[in-house]
Amino acid sequence: MKFKITLLLFCLAITVVTQAQSADKKKPAMSKKDSLLLAKLGAKGTYPAIKASKFSGVMPVDAITDKPDINLKYKLVISLASGTNDPDKIKELNRGLAEAGRIINLHLAAGVPKENMEVVIVTHGKALYALLNSEAFKRQFKAENPNADIIKELENAGARFVACGQAMQFLEIKNEELLPEVKIALSAKTALSTYQLKGYVLYEIDEE
Q1: Structure pTM?
Q2: How far apart (Å, rounded) are the C-alpha atoms in residues 34 and 55?
Q3: What's the CA gap between 129 and 104, in Å, rounded?
Q4: Residue 5 reports pLDDT greater than 60
Q5: What are the sequence ranges of the domains in the chain?
Q6: Region 172-197: what's the mean pLDDT?
Q7: For the domain 46-205, what is the CATH superfamily, name and number?
């Protein structure tokens, strides 16, 4: 009888360990570079407006001698193509949105008043999945959209979202599947050229 109980407990332990290892394999491993970055930001980073991602932090700098002109209007257009439809990675916050948040945080930390900033985030490629509404995201990926909080923070900071209509067609994303506040352009290329001709400074984010 003792032997049977011991064997049962051993089998149970093996099952628990195997399940834990399987869960760990599903989690994308954080790179050494990202781990070091987060460690530094965690110790010193500040978050003037966008707080939903630790990667949006700003490191303090002493004795700054070159500062932005706070009387200027800072018009920024961010080209965001960073994204994935990998079933595991998609459940993590989009790093491109975190970087867009960092661009805003950097300007605010440098002293640019929020009211002097105009930010447009032109979203294309697989980054569009991050802009799916809750129902559409859940239907496609069987999970809650992890980007909801950062998108809200970006909007509260004055950012506007524009979706590429061409990418929507190729990815078969319907208008009604996007968050209601997202505007739709014929293409990212025409939106980007239009905003640049209006004097917006271009930032490109295209890393996955």
Answers
A1: 0.82
A2: 9
A3: 22
A4: no
A5: 46-205
A6: 98
A7: DsrEFH-like (3.40.1260.10)
Q: Please give the angle made by the CA atoms of 176, 129 and 153, to the nearest 5 degrees.
A: 90
| pLDDT at 41 (0 to 100) | 76
Instruction: Cite the beta strand spans of the chain per DSSP E.
Output: 74-80, 117-123, 159-164, 183-185, 201-205
In the DSSP assignment, the letter for residue 149 is: H
What residue type is assigned to position 66 of the chain? Answer: D
Give the chain's mean pLDDT.
Answer: 87
Pairing of strands 201-205, 183-185: unpaired
User: Which residues, in sequence order, are CB contacts of 120 under 8 Å at separation 6+?
Assistant: 76, 77, 78, 159, 160, 161, 162, 191, 195, 200
List CB contacts of 137: < 8 A, sequence separation 6 or more: 129, 143, 144, 145
> What pLDDT does residue 2 have?
52
Q: Identify whether the C-beta of residue 116 lies closer than 8 Å to the C-beta of residue 73.
A: yes
User: How many CB atoms sit inside 10 A of residue 32's CB?
Assistant: 8
Identify the DSSP state of 182.
-
Question: CA 107, 112, 116: angle at the middle one, nearest 5?
Answer: 110
Phi, psi of 78 (to 5 degrees): -110, 120
Please, how many CA atoms are within 13 Å of residue 131, restricted to the half-sphere of its CB?
Answer: 34
Is 80 buried (19+), middle (13-18) or exposed (0-12) by CB count in 10 A?
buried
